[in-house]
Amino acid sequence: MRYSVLTYIMLVIIVTLSGCVGVKNQEPAGQLPGSGKKVNYQDAMDTWTQEGRIYDGVVARLISKVTFKSAVFRRAYAEEYSRLYKVEGVEYDNLVMQEQKEAVKYHDFLLAAYIPEKKWDDFSKEKSMWKIYITRDHVEQIRPLEIRKLKKKDPKIDYFYPYITTWKSIYHIRFPAFDPKTDGQLMDDSYDVLTLVMKSVIGSVEFKWETNQKQ
User: Which of 26, 84, 138, 156 could staple 213 via S-S, CB 3.0–4.6 A?
Assistant: First the structure.
């Protein structure tokens, strides 16, 4: 009996420690967040936002932050939006459902980028100098469905993405959540790291998120 108790305690310690490895508090990116589970918005923002920079010597060519709108991030957003705007009842249910549908269908990102040279700030142009894609194991490249420039003067965006400043351009980047070649889900148990890559003649930067770490 004593052996069983000690074994159980050791298992609890191992499971607890293993849960601390990697990026914290992430659910599978393509799965719906736990029903009714409250998620702190600032915690979600910190977890799902990455920073990337490109330098030429000591001169910054790109300073950027990207938020991956995963399922858990979208749940936190819906909760915070509802708190601010007093959204309740059917309207609240519709908001949560809409965010859940978007999480299943797409991998969406919000990019805020400071670029000193205006001509380099052309992410949304058809002949942009930037090549942007998401990848699995640095082999398969998935190109975006849409790159759309957003208005700088938007109090709601400023609130939900506090790292945005007047010096940064804002873009919405949308990828399919399903592989257009196989119609299979892009991220599953075999591919637990989603990498967003941005390449150009001035350099390249990568943003990585672990996608199958459950809360």
Answer: 26
Query: What integer best gives the mean pLDDT of the chain?
Result: 82
Residue 207 tokens, joined: 């943003």
Asked if the model's pLDDT at residue 6 lies above 80, the reply is no
Q: Taking the model in full, what pTM does it have?
A: 0.78
Q: Report yes or no: 80 and 41 within 8 Å, Cβ to Cβ.
A: yes
| Rg, Å, the chain Cα set | 19
CB contact at 8 A, 113 and 134 = no
Q: What are phi and psi of 45, to 5 degrees?
A: -60, -45
| pLDDT range class, residue 37, cuts 50, 70, 90 | low
Q: For residues 211 and 28, is the Cβ–Cβ distance under 8 A?
A: yes
